Automatic annotation (TrEMBL):
The protein, known as: ISKra4 family transposase
Organismal lineage: Bacteria, Bacillati, Cyanobacteriota, Cyanophyceae, Nodosilineales
C-alpha cells in the first residue's frame, strides 16, 4: 500500500504489541478502513487498513492453531479443563442454543468479481440462567456468563466446537442444562449427539406457533379471515398453556377426517408430524413455571451481534481465511480470551466484552 511504503511499514513488520492489540480490537468492531482512521485519531499513528488486515490474519492464525490442537486433544480422549467460574454462577442452570446465519462470500479467491456466494455459519451460545425483577416485580430469566461458538461449516464440523466449549463450561456439573432451538433437524441432531442425556430440550415457542399458522392456512385456505384468526389464537393459547396434547389430538383428528387433499393434506401431515416429533419439547406451561425461556431468542440475538454486525455490512464479501481469522478473534474477545493473545501488554483498566 502507498501509505505503508511512505511510512516504511512492511506488511508483516513488527510493531509494538500495544499498537497491534489496539488495531486488532478496532478491526473486531468496524471495517478495516474505518479502524485505520480510528487508530490514527486515537494514537496519531498512520497504519493502513492492509496492515490491520495482516495483523488480524496473524493473530487469527495463532488462535486457529491453538483451537485445532484443543480439538485434536478432545478427539483423542484428553480431559478438557473447565474455565474458572464464580461459585454463584456454578449454581445456576446452563442454557445452550444453536442457530445458523448466512454470510456473503467471494465466489473466486482474491477477487471481488462475480456473484455473491451465501454460506451458513453455525452459531452456538452457552449462558448461565439467572433471574431479574421487572419494574412490576415479576422474576424473568436473565442470561449471564455468555460464551459463544461459531463455525463456517456443516453440523458435523460444528459439533466438536460446541462440545469443547460445553466442557470448558463444565456442563456436566451444572445443576440443570437446557437446550433451546428452533425446529431445524440439524441442530436437533446436535442436541441428540451432545446433550440428550442431561438436558431439558425446549422447542422455540414462536416456531411452534408458526407451524400452527401453516395448519391454519391449510384449514381455511388463508389466514386473515375472522374465523381463521380465531382458530389460530385459540390453538396457540392452548399450546402455550399446557394443552399440547389437545393440539396434537386435534391435528390428528383433522388428518383422519378425510376432508382434506392435495397441498392442504400434505401441510397437515407435516405439521402433525412436527408436533408429534417435538411433543416433549413443547411443554411450555411447565417450562414457564420453572422459569425456563420459551424461545431461542438468545442465540438469534447472538447471530446478529456476533456475525451480522461485523460481517454483513454494505458491500462486504469475504474470503474464507479472511472471515475465519477475524471471526476467531471476535470469539476470543466475546469469550474474554482476547487478552491472552497479547501476554506482554499490561492488562487494561477494564476487560470489556459484550454484556450479553
Amino acid at each position: 500500500m502507498p501509505l505503508d511504503e511512505a511510512l516504511g511499514i512492511a506488511p508483516y513488520q513488527q510493531h509494538s504489541e500495544e499498537v497491534i492489540r489496539l488495531g486488532c480490537l478496532f478491526s473486531l468492531v468496524m471495517p478495516y478502513e474505518l479502524a485505520s482512521w480510528m487508530l490514527s485519531q486515537w494514537s496519531g499513528l498512520s497504519v493502513s487498513a492492509a496492515s490491520l488486515w495482516n495483523w488480524v490474519q496473524q493473530r487469527g492464525q495463532q488462535v486457529q492453531a491453538e483451537l485445532m490442537e484443543q480439538l485434536q486433544a478432545q478427539a483423542s480422549g484428553a480431559e478438557v479443563s473447565p474455565d474458572p467460574l464464580e461459585a454463584t454462577l456454578a449454581t445456576l442452570p446452563l442454557a445452550i442454543g444453536a442457530d445458523g446465519v448466512m454470510v456473503p462470500f467471494r465466489p473466486t479467491p482474491k477477487t471481488a468479481k462475480g456473484k455473491i456466494q451465501w454460506r451458513e455459519v453455525k452459531v452456538g451460545i452457552l449462558a448461565r440462567l439467572g433471574t431479574r425483577l421487572t419494574q412490576a416485580g415479576v422474576a424473568v430469566p436473565k442470561l449471564l456468563h455468555h460464551r459463544l461458538v461459531a463455525v463456517l461449516g456443516d453440523i458435523d464440523q460444528f459439533i466438536p466446537h460446541l462440545q469443547l466449549e460445553a466442557q470448558r463450561q463444565a456442563f456436566e456439573a451444572a445443576p440443570q442444562v437446557i437446550w433451546l432451538s428452533d425446529g431445524g433437524r440439524g441442530f436437533w441432531r446436535v442436541y441428540q449427539t451432545c446433550f440428550s442425556h442431561c438436558a431439558i430440550a425446549v422447542l422455540d415457542f414462536f416456531h411452534a406457533a408458526g407451524q400452527l399458522a401453516r395448519a391454519t392456512q391449510a384449514l381455511f385456505g388463508e389466514k386473515r379471515s375472522a374465523q381463521a384468526r380465531a382458530w389460530f389464537r385459540r390453538w396457540r393459547y392452548l399450546l402455550r398453556h399446557g394443552r399440547t396434547r389437545d393440539v396434537l389430538r386435534a391435528l390428528t383428528a383433522l388428518l383422519n377426517s378425510k376432508l382434506f387433499c392435495g397441498t392442504a393434506l400434505d401441510t397437515l401431515v407435516q405439521v402433525q408430524a412436527y408436533f408429534q416429533r417435538h411433543y416433549r419439547h413443547m411443554q411450555y406451561q411447565q417450562f414457564a413455571r420453572q422459569q425456563i425461556p420459551l424461545g431461542s431468542g438468545m442465540v438469534e440475538s447472538a447471530c446478529k451481534w456476533l456475525i451480522q454486525q461485523r460481517f454483513k455490512g454494505v458491500g462486504m464479501r469475504w474470503s474464507e481465511d479472511g472471515f475465519n481469522h477475524l471471526l476467531l478473534l471476535r470469539l476470543a474477545w466475546v469469550n474474554q480470551r482476547f487478552e491472552s493473545l497479547f501476554p506482554h501488554v499490561p492488562d487494561p483498566p477494564t476487560s470489556y466484552s459484550p454484556d450479553r
